[in-house]
Hints:
elongated, 11 helices, mainly alpha, disordered C terminus, 256 residues
Amino acid sequence: MSDPYNVVDSLIKDYLHFRGFTASLKTFETDSNTAKDKKYKVDAVVEDIVSCIEKYDIVSLRGIWEYLNIRIFTSLSSEQVTIARQLENDIYRLYLVNTIQNRKQSKAVEFFEKNMDFLRNNSQWNEWFSLPYIGNPTESETFKKFFTKQWHEILLVSLHNFLSISFSKIKAPALLECVNEMIKNDSPDDYLPSSGDRIEFPRSRVPSFHSFDELMDDFAIIAQASNVDRNKPNKGVLISMLKNIAGIITIKQTFF
């Protein structure tokens, strides 16, 4: 069966080419090639988050979470939004713990400098400002649990499960729903690209729109979740941990 994502991508490229939007077409093709396998796949997003932590890339990590807050978590219940906020706090804690464990004090200080807007007036972080200056935080009653392997593993599994639930609640864009309906009603071969990478639809199935612009107004291009280079595999501790637990993750509605 034809992949509806590929059909929609081809429609968009065909439209941009038709309108002469060459710059937009080039950007769309680049983004599509970079994120072609993600499509809201939980594993890919979790790997990106862990990779940002391993690479001390707080800017990209904040970008990923801001995207999740804006595009994914807005469809959740108030109780689920509270869980999302707690996970965000814990992911940033994991980032900070990783800097301390690897003796990257400058990265720990940078974390606070670049996240003051998030940390200010956040009572959960009152004691954490002292972490970069504590000699042995693993012996501190406040911080020692955050340095354990068990806490790291539980956090990553919880994040995976919560994202699975969150992604399942996403409403597909109108254009994607339209293509899905067409594919269900017609032979999949009707939607395979023809010469020139253009899409041909049976005339009897083309929906009635006042203008093609109306249809295009209803669809939103999913933003690229992060700029993490996925062509260079990270061999850090957290990446290894993620690979070890990936095989045993059972997606359950842990929080509900």
